[in-house]
Design goal:
The complex is a heterodimer.
Chain A (H helix, E strand, L loop, with lengths): L9 E4 L9 H11 L11 H8 L5 E5 L8 H9 L5 E5 L5 H7 L3 E6 L6 H8 L4 E4 L2 H13 L3 E4 L6 H4 L4 E4 L6 E6 L5 E9 L5 E2 L7 H7 L2 E9 L2 H6 L13 E4 L17 H12 L3 H10 L4 H9 L1 H9 L10
Parallel strand pairs in A: 2-3, 2-9, 3-4, 4-5, 9-11, 11-12
Antiparallel strand pairs in A: 1-7, 6-8, 7-8, 9-10
Chain B lengths: L4 E4 H12 L5 E4 L4 H12 L5 E4 L3 E2 L23 E2 L2 H10 L4 E5 L2 E2 L5 E2 L2 E2 L8 E2 L6 H7 L2 E5 L26 H4 L7 E6 L3 E5 L6 E6 L5 H6 L6 E8 L5 H11 L10 E7 L2 E7 L6
Parallel strand pairs in B: 2-3, 2-6, 6-11, 11-12, 14-15
Antiparallel strand pairs in B: 1-16, 4-5, 7-8, 9-10, 12-13, 13-14, 16-17
Helix pairs in contact in B: 1-2, 2-7
The chains are: A alpha/beta, B alpha/beta.
């Protein structure tokens, strides 16, 4: 099939499901729901999840449970028993496993994620459906969502089984006549982003490399920021170049020191390897129920978990042993 | 019997890959794993200023050695970089052609250098064994000028037909196959590095070609460990075993935590001025 000069030929397409891009729907959502004023958006993790995460939502997070990710918000989602979520697992760690073990997930767009018995058993039982992408393609789909366009061309994914199991299309580029791959924009219902610093309005600072926190925030209809530290707006206005997510994109600001625990926020605290081992052992021994009971269901909140299950001594140790701070807070 | 040298399959592939690395080229690696360890080893051996870019947006870090035990969850892996960007940005740089070599690990590979890192089995929805997915391997293998793949030589890995093609090599091997699938031209797999053999790809047919074999192994042994039969170069090279120096830098200076001591052990002894294999543990893993 070739272009006749008036139409663009679709040379091939994958069979994976995706939510049809709707840039105008996104614009309308922004027009009708996003506050343009500087308003105090601080709230508890319970309120943020109750108000902004619903059953059936497409959820995207950044980074992951091991590094500067919104671990405390994920535990709250499990505590509140959300169901049928569709996750974007772009360079995910055990996030997807945790939420699947909690019964919250029915679909995952996969770039990379930690996979063990929880994921494979859910797949084999027909409770979980995976769609194939790559880390970069997912980050790029969020970029398309952030740009407000329905799709973007890219020069990979084509020719592979990933293409076949994704929602990508291969077209003849009307400018060069060469084949080029298209991927659909994603506009998640909700983004969960853990940041280093943020003011009460949602002006957020992220230190260190990352996946696609800015694109993810911009692309998403609702944005929950959990932050290690809430800082004054005066401080924000003194260093405007440090703000990467401006307030009007943000719906909720949740103060969550050690919010990535058991992962690391580089420059602030190291990962709790002992805890990560405990997670691995629980999965290997098929005792995820016990793990969730201990770390999620039997505590009231993130703060409660830190106090009752981790303890101040351990927290101080994790901070003290994160000795390499250059580039983050200096 | 004196064992002159003992190393694991993983260590050997890291050492051979490190030897190939050039200081005037830019490398793209995923976070953690043997490719990154190969770069760190090349820095200690012959390419102290070699620069690499990591999928998480870290550009040209100077990661301290010994490496932290847990690289994905360690800020140290990104330390002393020249820039901290993000995933889209470094993929853009690769798309523009700045990234010369992508170095990747593969679970399964076919004769055209296509590879699998997604699942084993015949049903995508009910995998016999599911892995993490391609991660950044597909963009790295598509956008870098050349791809170097690292794996162990094993019949279950060098297969006629992949269970799933996560990332592209030369696809079906036909001329222009990558371009027809939307990839940049003049790109593709360059080397496949294993513990006992290194392969390239024939320029005409795009089929995998055996380039060099370890002196303690043989062409027959190599071919016996592959489900498909590769081309064999007329001027077959010899693959010098890892030296004590290389192994000691890798073990003591870079990775005292023992991350690289994985795979099977190969033991060599000196016999008549030559190294020969006296023992090899039986492959047990898929």
């Amino acid at each position: 099939m070739a272009s006749n000069g008036k139409t663009i030929a679709i040379l091939d397409e994958g069979v994976g499901a995706y939510r049809p891009p709707d840039p105008d729907g996104m614009r309308r959502h922004v027009r009708d729901n996003k506050d343009r004023r500087l308003v105090d958006k601080r709230m508890s993790e319970q309120d943020a999840v109750a108000r902004f995460v619903a059953d059936g939502n497409y959820v995207s997070y950044d980074t992951n449970t091991w590094r500067r990710g919104p671990s405390s918000l994920m535990r709250e989602i499990i505590r509140q028993g959300r169901r049928d979520l569709w996750l974007a697992a772009k360079f995910s760690m055990h996030d997807a496993t945790l939420l699947t073990a909690g019964g919250c997930v029915s679909k995952i767009d996969v770039g990379w994620m930690e996979v063990g018995s929880v994921i494979t058993e859910a797949m084999n039982a027909g409770r979980l459906k995976l769609y194939e992408w790559t880390n970069g393609a997912l980050a790029y789909r969020h970029l398309a969502g952030a740009l407000g366009v329905p799709f973007l061309p890219l020069r990979y994914v084509g020719g592979t089984s990933v293409f076949r199991n994704s929602g990508a299309k291969l077209i003849e580029d009307p400018y060069t006549g060469q084949a080029v791959c298209l991927v659909p924009a994603v506009n998640p219902d909700v983004a969960l982003i853990h940041v280093n610093q943020c003011d009460m309005y949602g002006n957020a600072r992220i230190f260190g490399p990352g996946l696609a926190p800015v694109e993810t925030a911009m692309a998403s209809k609702r944005v929950i920021i959990s932050t290690e530290e809430i800082i004054g707006t005066d401080e924000i206005r003194k260093h405007p170049g440090a703000t990467t997510i401006p307030y009007y994109i943000v719906d909720a600001v949740v103060h969550a020191p050690f919010g990535c625990y058991p992962g690391t926020v580089p420059g602030l605290y190291r990962a709790d390897l002992q805890h990560l081992m405990e997670f691995g052992v629980a999965q290997a021994q098929k005792k995820m129920g016990d793990y969730l009971e201990k770390w999620v269901y039997s505590v009231l909140s993130h703060t409660d978990m830190l106090e009752k299950r981790v303890g101040i001594e351990k927290l101080n140790l994790l901070r003290a042993e994160e000795t390499h701070t250059e580039g983050y807070y200096t | 019997m004196t064992v002159a040298l003992a190393f694991t399959t993983n260590e050997a592939a890291i050492v051979y890959t490190a030897r190939m690395m050039e200081e005037d080229r830019l490398y793209f690696v995923a976070i953690g794993g043997p490719p990154l360890l190969a770069i760190l080893l090349s820095k200690q051996l012959h390419a102290p200023k070699i620069a690499y870019v990591v999928e998480d947006g870290t550009i040209a870090p100077e990661m301290p050695v010994p490496t932290p035990a847990f690289m994905v969850g360690a800020g140290l892996a990104s330390s002393r970089a020249v820039a901290w960007t993000d995933m889209n940005t470094v993929d853009f740089h690769a798309g523009l052609g700045y990234l010369d070599y992508g170095v990747l690990a593969a679970v399964q590979i076919d004769e055209y250098g296509n590879f699998n890192s997604t699942f084993l089995g015949d049903d995508f929805d009910r995998p016999a064994r599911r892995f993490g997915g391609p991660g950044g391997a597909t963009e790295i293998a598509s956008l870098c000028w050349r791809t170097i793949l690292m794996t162990r030589l094993d019949r279950r890995k060098f297969v006629r037909k992949l269970d799933f093609m996560s990332s592209p090599g030369y696809l079906d091997g036909s001329a222009g196959a990558r371009e027809r699938a939307g990839m940049p031209s003049e790109t593709g797999p360059y080397r496949v590095v294993t513990e006992r053999a290194i392969f390239g790809f024939d320029e005409e047919t795009r089929r995998m070609q055996l380039l060099s074999v370890a002196p303690w192994s043989s062409v027959d042994e190599v071919l016996g460990q592959m489900e498909f039969q590769p081309l064999v170069a007329a001027d077959l090279g010899s693959l010098d075993p890892p030296t004590e120096d290389e192994l000691s830098i890798l073990r003591a200076d870079i990775d005292p935590g023992g991350r690289t001591i994985s795979g099977d052990w190969i033991q060599l002894e000196e016999f008549g001025g030559r190294l020969r294999r006296v023992a090899e543990s039986t492959p047990t893993r898929g």
